[in-house]
Amino acid sequence: xxxxxxxxxxxxxxxxxxxxxxxxxxxxxxxxxxxxxxxxxxxxxxxxxxxxxxxxxxxxxxxxxxxxxxxxxxxxxxxxxxxxxxxxxxxxxxxxxxxxxxxxxxxxxxxxxxxxxxxxxxxxxxxxxxxxxxxxxxxxxxxxxxxxxxxxxxxxxxxxxxxxxxxxxxxxxxxxxxxxxxxxxxxxxxxxxxxxxxxxxxxxxxxxxxxxxxxxxxxxxxxxxxxxxxxxxxxxxxxxxxxxxxxxxxxxxxxxxxxxxxxxxxxxxxxxxxxxxxxxxxxxxxxxxxxxxxxxxxxxxxxxxxxxxxxxxxxxxxxxxxxxxxxxxxxxxxxxxxxxxxxxxxxxxxxxxxxxxxxxxxxxxxxxxxxxxxxxxxxxxxxxxxxxxxxxxxxxxxxxxxxxxxxxxxxxxxxxxxxx
Amino acid sequence: xxxxxxxxxxxxxxxxxxxxxxxxxxxxxxxxxxxxxxxxxxxxxxxxxxxxxxxxxxxxxxxxxxxxxxxxxxxxxxxxxxxxxxxxxxxxxxx
Lengths: 420, 95
What we know:
The complex is a heterodimer of chains A (420) and B (95). By secondary structure, chain A is α+β, with helices and mostly antiparallel strands. In chain A, 56% of the residues lie in helices and 8% in strands. Chain A contains 17 helices and five strands. Chain A is elongated. Chain B has one domain. Chain B is 51% helix and 15% strand. Chain B has one helix and three strands. At the A-B interface, helix 12 and helix 13 of A face helix 1 of B.
C-alpha cells in the first residue's frame, strides 16, 4: 500500500518534471535569443569604453559588465532589434550604448546599418556627433522631443542616418525605463467570467451536483454560454506555446494564468480531468451531436486504425515542440479547433478543421477528443490514474520528447545555417 | 501489420508538413539575407551613379536562386523589390 503510494508520487514528480523541463528549455532558448539579438555584444566592443571590463553577462535588461573582481561596473545595450522600426535613409541602424552605474553614457557607437555605406562611414567618423552623447543621463534621454534643443546636431551629409541613430538611442532609453517600471496586476471584466466558469466546473466536479445529471447539464451549458458569449480563452497549444516562449503574463492576465495552472494541478492531484469533462465547449458540442445521430449511423473504426489514430495527439505535441524551437512559419492555433469558437479570430484552416471535427465526432462519439486533441492528451497525461497508474509508454515518449527538445535547442542555430 | 501501415501514413503526412515548413523557413531566412545584400548593392549603385538602376542587370548580389522582381519610379522618387512575394522598399513610404 505504502509502496504503491510512493510509486504514484514518483510518477507525478516525473510527469511534472517533464512538463516543467520542456517549458524551461523552450523559455530559456527564446530568452537567450531575444537578449542576445542577431548580433550579440562582445567583450571587445565594451572594452573600448570600459577598459577594466573582464566579463559580460546577458540579462533581460541588457548586458551587465564586470571587472576583474566580478564587480558590476556598467551596462551595455544595443538598439537593435527593439528600435528597428526607426528607419534612416534606407533602413534601420544598430547602435551600442555603454553606461556606468549611475546610468551616465560612457560612449555610443554605430555597430551596423542598412543605410548607404558612405553615410554610415560619415556618421562613424563624425567624432563630434558620437562624443556628444558622452556624459548624458541615459534615463533623461527619453524626455527628448527635439534633437537640436538638446544640442544633438545631425551629421551633415548623413542627416537621416545620424538622426536614425539618435532616435534609436532615445527610443532605447524609453524601452529601458518601461522594463524597469514596477509592474502591477491589471484585471479585466472577462476575469470575472473565467472565475465563474472555474467555480461552476469545481461545483460540478467536487460536490453532489455531479450525481445529478440535470444539474450537470445545466452547469455545463452555463459554462458553454459563458465561454462562447464572452470569448474566454480556451486551453490550447497556441497558448501553452506562446507562454513557454515568452513567459506567463502574470501581471496582465493573472486570472487566466491561474485558470491554466489550476487546470493542470487538479488532474495531477485529484484524478479529475476537470477541463475536458466540464469546461471544453468542443467536448460538449461533440457529445450533443453524437447523441443526435442514431447509433445505426455510427462509424465503426477498425481496431488497427484506432490503434494508429491514438498516436495523433502525441505526434502533434512533438510537432508543436519542433515548431517552437525552430520557429517554423506555422500558426499553432491552426493545430487545434479551439480558435474557431470565436470565428472572427480564426483562420480558414481552423474553421475547416472545426467543421470536419464536428462531422467526424457526430459519427464517432468524441472522435476529436480521442484521436486528434493534443491539449486533451496533455491534460490526460498529467491526470493521476490512482493505484493502477504505472510508468507507461506515454511516460517513455514524454521523456524522449524532452531529450530531443534539449538536443534541438542546441542544434537550432546549426539547422538555421543549413537552411541558409 | 495493418496498424503499422496506418501509423506510417500518419507519420509520413506529418513529416511532409514539417519538411514543407522547414522549406518555407529556409526561404524566409534566404529572403532576409538576399534583401540585405540587394539593399546594400542598390545603395552603393545609387551613391555612385546618383540615379536608380533601371533593372538589376548591373547590380551584383547573391540572389540564392530566389525570385526577385525590381521596380523603380520613372520620376526618380524611389524603388522597391519583391523577393519571393515579400515587398521591400528602399524608402520609407511615409516620407
